[in-house]
Amino acid sequence: MAAKLTSSTLLHHILNKHHFPARTFPWRRVGARHCASFQQQKTQYSNHGATSSWDVQSYMPEAAALSNVQSYQELLDISVGDPETFWGVLARERLTWVKPFQMVKDCDFTQGRVRWFLGGQLNVSVNCLDKHVHQCPERVALIWERDEPGTQVNITYRELLDTTCRIANTLKKHGVQKGDRVAIYMPVSPMAVAAMLACARIGAVHTIVFAGFSAESLAGRINDASCKAVITFNQGVRGGRVTELKKTVDEAVKSCPSVKHVFVAQRTDNKVHMGNLDISLEEEMDKADSVCTPEAMNSEDMLFMLYTSGSTGKPKGVVHTQAGYLLYAALTHKYVFDYKQGDVFGCMADIGWITGHSYVVYGPLCNGATTVLFESTPTYPDPGRYWETVERLQINQFYGAPTAIRLLLKYGDDWVKKYNRSSLKTLGSVGEPINHEAWEWFHNVVGEKRCTLVDTWWQTETGGICISPRPSEPEAEVIPAMAMRPFFGIQPLLLSENGKVIEGGDVSGALCIAQPWPGMARTIYGDHQRFVDAYFKTYPGYYFTGDGAHRTNEGYYQITGRMDDVINISGHRLGTAEIEDALDEHPDVPETAVIGFPHEIKGETAFAFVVLKENLSLPEKAILEELKSIVATKIAKYAVPDHIMVVKRLPKTRSGKIMRRVLRKIVTNQTEDLGDITTLEDSSVITEILEAHQKYKMDKPGK
Ligand code: PRX
Predict the structure, then answer these.
(1) What is the pTM assigned to this prediction?
(2) What's the distance, CA 115 to chain centroid?
(3) Is the CB of 456 under 6 A from ligand 1?
(4) What's the 118 CA to ligand 1 centre distance in angstroms?
């Protein structure tokens, strides 16, 4: 065995294996063309719903320890009826502990107190890496599906552990300690995954900021979390375009006094300016030791925080902790998608969102899976990209967003049929409601009617999937475009406006969850009261999701959409107040109101009503352009409203509250019934806005 394996020698090893030109760092070259084909050890396809020999104990080996459970229904019953036993057994069996836990849970929703596996210690990176390296070091952990098709790079569990340890030692050398927050501003890539795991290894808390967010959004998150370090790339590559990640970080950290270092990895060969704070990550990794002793972390120590939008202007840092989150991510990954050892799991999400955390990284890696890191877009270089990738990588489970499916179905079936999709077993949808047309196309065309399609409902705060057609009884029906059934341990219920539990079938209400589960968020960073207020105050004793739902006579759940001022643009959650705050910054704009508006591909888009000052400094058209650029700069490009309509006044109640529901009705042409408008301060405002809307539609045909 060679003495010390430096990251250069390790990289050479990977290079040689993949026939990259020598001395080329394989994780960054945009133009590299070749990659060895990936021969996997595949297991025979067997859908747990489709075999006649289905038995609960081979499905979940812990069933025997769970009062000798014999059927799926008993399993589900015990998960809800006796969560201490259910989760206790699963946590002991599925996680590797440094010190066993003494208490399964200590929770009280009225206080917003959620704690699991108390007294236990473990390390998440050990559960995601060392555990598998010990058994099968050469199993492929990551397939990096880079932007250029056909240039994928495979990273084994051994290689990923090595890289993780080098980053961990680099962070430690530069003063990052247990409990410190580290911002990661990187698109999905092996380096980003290793950076997440490196933080987990040393007990630092990562907060990933989606690499499409602006410098100002990034700075806001870094400051809220008081991050000590930022990890980024020189540039990003997506859809054939290069993005200036390091420049955005430079801009952001100017106003972030807590940041002591910026670690810069290379994704492209282009040089970027390196300032006082900047450290070349690869150079440091070359010098670093490839072994790093993992920190023993308490179950309830923070693992990561992830900012998400609420109904106020300020995004909240949702906190997830170690053991409960990991167990829930791993279990949902296995049972919702029917993941089997040897499968290639393809979740198309970016690591900047919770889906990337739970189903690109933590769930699959904890299960020893091979997980795909998809760097590109569904239409690059053409609309066949997803399915060409499925064929080339032999993906078994494909998890994507309805917005991408809606976009692709417009290009027709040929782009799908061109490629062999026989490897696919399970299809999944996440992030927003999937409409019937998209569901049917995904199921019938992509999945050839033989794959199980699961519409999965969950949130950043829930940590993992809570409602989805699987798991379920063997061969249980799957109803199109419906999330349907709660996961183990999840007890959904519907509440009425006056806080009463709604019983029975064919009913609608506010979707709540009655009891805690290990994967749920623990707090909002730095503001526990906000956590209590947002999730536990509206319906005391229950977790309120913010979504509405319908329950059918069969007891299945259909999500009906948000009940607050949060909109969902291409599966990305955004508070309308965030956009309003950005627009209000313009000196010529005294007031705005933003609502969600249906969009064929994106699901929803922002529709902004703006009031302008009397004497404008610029022509109106120029101001509207400025408003768009303000939103892009202050938040992100995807947040820019598709519609900005100028009005003289906004509809307000006598107490000064904007009646957004009236605006929603007007723009969706439901003007016959505007609802109760008796509280409006001046009802003539309605006529004004209706006229403005008519004019807007004429000026912008088709809207
Ligand atoms: O409104 C629901 C919608 O997305 C919200 C959560 O957004 P986020 O925290 O960004 O997490 C997205 C990925 C898990 C929910 O409150 N949502 C998510 N999945 C679905 C959905 N709406 C309908 N159907 C779904 N399957």
Answers:
(1) 0.92
(2) 23
(3) yes
(4) 30
